[in-house]
C-alpha cells in the first residue's frame, strides 16, 4: 500500500491517505499529517501488509515502523531525485553567463534530464555550466551517480552501489551534496529495498492529481468529512 499527505487548504491544513498500491483506491483518510495521524490511518487498514510506499518524511518512517515493523518500506524515487533538482534550481542564480543566454526553464530541464536524453548542443551547454559553478557540477555528478545506483536489480548489487555512493558523497566538500547523502544514510535499509522493489509512487501521484481535480471541481469543500467521502467514492473500483 501507499501512504501520502495532501493539502486540504494549501499551506494550512493537510490530511493523510492510504492507497492500494495496485489500484490507487483510497482505503482510509484522516486529517493532519503528524506521526499520530499517520499511525491512526495505517491502523485503519486491515489485512497482511507486506510493503508500504511513502516519501522521506520522518513522521512517515516512524509511523510505518511502529504499525508495520516487519513490512518492507519503499521510498519515493521521485522525491529522491527532486532533492537534487531542487538544489540545482537554487544554484541557478550563480550561473551568470547561463542566465544571460538561456531561460530558467531551459537550464533546469537540461540539468535535470539524463545526459543521453540531451542533444549534443545541450550537452555542450551543460559542460559550460558545470565549469562555471563548483556546486552545480557536484550536484549534477551526484544525481547521475544516484541514477546509476537506482538501476541495480539485486539486493547485493543495490547494497554495493549505494555503499559506494555514500562513501563518495557523505563527507563531500559541497555542503548540499553531503546533506542529501546524510538524508539517504539515515534510511539506508529502506533505500536498498527501494532500489530493486517493483513498487513505486506512480499510482499515488496519479491519485493525488485526481484529488486536486475533485477539489477544484467542487470549488473547495467546507466540510472535510464530505470531501473524504467524495474521494473514497471517486477512487473506488
UniProtKB/TrEMBL annotation:
Domain Transposase IS204/IS1001/IS1096/IS1165 DDE: 1-230
InterPro entries for the chain: Transpos_ISL3 (IPR047951), Transposase_DDE (IPR002560)
Pfam families in the cross-refs: DDE_Tnp_ISL3 (PF01610)
UniProt protein name: Transposase
Amino acid at each position: 500500500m501507499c501512504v501520502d499527505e495532501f493539502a486540504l487548504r494549501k499551506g494550512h491544513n493537510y490530511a493523510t491517505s492510504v492507497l492500494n498500491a495496485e489500484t490507487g483506491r483510497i482505503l482510509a483518510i484522516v486529517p493532519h499529517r503528524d506521526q499520530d495521524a499517520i499511525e491512526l490511518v495505517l491502523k485503519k487498514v486491515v489485512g497482511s501488509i507486506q510493503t508500504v510506499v511513502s516519501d522521506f518524511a520522518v513522521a512517515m518512517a516512524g509511523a510505518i515502523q511502529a504499525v508495520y515493523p516487519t513490512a518492507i518500506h519503499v521510498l519515493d524515487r521521485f522525491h529522491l531525485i527532486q532533492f537534487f533538482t531542487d538544489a540545482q534550481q537554487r544554484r541557478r542564480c550563480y550561473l551568470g553567463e547561463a542566465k544571460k543566454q538561456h531561460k530558467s526553464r531551459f537550464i533546469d530541464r537540461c540539468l535535470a534530464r539524463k545526459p543521453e536524453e540531451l542533444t549534443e548542443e545541450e550537452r555542450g551547454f551543460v559542460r559550460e555550466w558545470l565549469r562555471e559553478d563548483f556546486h552545480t557540477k557536484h550536484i549534477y555528478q551526484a544525481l547521475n551517480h544516484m541514477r546509476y545506483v537506482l538501476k541495480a536489480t539485486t539486493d547485493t548489487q543495490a547494497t554495493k552501489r549505494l555503499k559506494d555512493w555514500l562513501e563518495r558523497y557523505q563527507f563531500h566538500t559541497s555542503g548540499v551534496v553531503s546533506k542529501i547523502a546524510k538524508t539517504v544514510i539515515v534510511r539506508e535499509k529502506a533505500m536498498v529495498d527501494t532500489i530493486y522493489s517493483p513498487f513505486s509512487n506512480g499510482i499515488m501521484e496519479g491519485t493525488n492529481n485526481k484529488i486536486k481535480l475533485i477539489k477544484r471541481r467542487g470549488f473547495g469543500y467546507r466540510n472535510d468529512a464530505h470531501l473524504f467521502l467524495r474521494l473514497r467514492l471517486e477512487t473506488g473500483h
